[in-house]
Design goal:
With about 325 residues, the chain is an alpha/beta fold. The protein has 12 helices and 15 strands. The protein folds into 2 domains: about 150 residues, Alpha-Beta Complex (Quinone Oxidoreductase, Chain A, domain 1); about 140 residues, NAD(P)-binding Rossmann-like Domain (Rossmann fold), CATH 3.40.50.
Length: about 325
């Protein structure tokens, strides 16, 4: 069985190696064995390889926050899935040809779902969904502002917000992505900069911006905070800068801006298994209807993991990089 391991922390393309690992045993009671059809390379996976992620297991370790798989066999007592079913795995270590997990760790997918899209459904779509539902009670017509708007989560936020009647200000580092974001439903697109709050106010005609999303941190958090109205809220869900968020105390103390953080696992843990399944069922329905679609930049075999990782880190690459460990799908 092929598997990707890292034996040291460092540049992902240097430390990740495709190795020959022992075959997995047949599934025991309550277990599911599945072939990994595809897995994406996410920013969190890159941070994991560098040793900068919140999880830092003993080495060697296998990365991989998400994947889509096809069930090969199930153990005694398994009732929710059968051989041949498509599943996503709620556990990690998915950069491999095969996985053996507990039945409770898989979500069954309907036949006919786009496999590339399914590989990317576990993290970014629920992140965008819960960011817009769990932090601020947003109403149709409300304005929100987000940076990293061209990211996978940012694009999903645009589409979800549009369907809910929310209006979005979308902040990026380059303007050549504006036409794509507008096509997704973005109301306003702006280049990041020190005068962001002034330009955002002009773009909304002075309408209050109730909520800000930040995935850059550092000084970028302060720029997003300056955009929101008094008693508004800012949520940090990433740190592309590698820095801690910085917000002037005047925004927090005198204007009453609230600053919070988001991690998908923490927000899902507030829900029971049935509620989590309902979230994913709706997201899968959105994928199958075309309401959710993430571009795919390239698909690599697992043996070329180094090149796949280099591609995933190129500036301005178009679409998510996927790996198909068991061949084309």
């Amino acid at each position: 069985m092929k598997r990707v391991d890292i034996a040291a922390w460092g540049a992902p393309e240097d430390v990740a190696r495709c190795i020959d690992a022992p075959d997995l045993p047949p599934p025991g009671p309550g277990e599911v064995l599945f072939d990994v059809v595809a897995f994406p390379i996410n920013p969190a996976d890159l941070a994991f390889c560098r040793g900068r992620y919140r999880l830092k297991p003993p080495l060697p370790a296998t990365p991989g926050a998400e994947c889509v798989g096809r069930v090969k066999a199930v153990g005694a007592g398994v009732k929710r899935v059968v051989a041949g079913d498509l599943v996503i795995n709620l556990q990690r270590e998915n950069w491999a040809q095969r996985r053996l997990v507990k039945e409770a760790d898989v979500i069954r997918l309907p036949a006919g779902v786009d496999l590339g899209q399914a590989a990317m459904i576990r993290i970014n779509p629920p992140t965008a969904t819960l960011l817009l539902s769990d932090i601020v009670d947003l109403k149709a017509g409300d304005w929100i502002v987000q940076n990293v708007a061209n990211s996978a989560v940012g694009r999903l936020v645009i589409g979800i917000a549009k369907r809910r009647g929310l209006r979005t200000i979308n902040v990026t580092r380059r303007d050549n992505v504006f036409p794509e974001l507008k096509a997704l439903g973005a109301d306003v697109c702006l280049i990041d900069g020190d005068d962001l709050a002034v330009r955002a106010k002009q773009a909304t005609g002075g309408a209050p911006i109730r909520f800000g999303l930040d995935a850059v941190a550092g000084e970028a958090t302060a720029r997003i905070a300056a955009c929101v109205v008094d008693d508004g809220a800012v949520c940090v869900y990433g740190s592309m800068s590698g820095e801690d968020p910085r917000v002037p105390s005047s925004d927090l103390v005198y204007r009453g801006v609230t600053l919070s953080g988001f991690m998908l696992g923490r927000f899902l843990a507030r829900r029971d298994a049935e509620a989590i399944e309902r979230i994913y069922a709706q997201l899968v329905a959105d994928v199958m209807s075309g309401a959710i679609h993430a571009p795919v930049g390239a698909i690599y075999p697992i043996e070329e993991i180094g090149e796949a990782l280099r591609h995933a880190q190129r500036a301005g690459h178009d679409g998510k990089i996927l790996v198909a460990p068991n061949g084309d799908f």
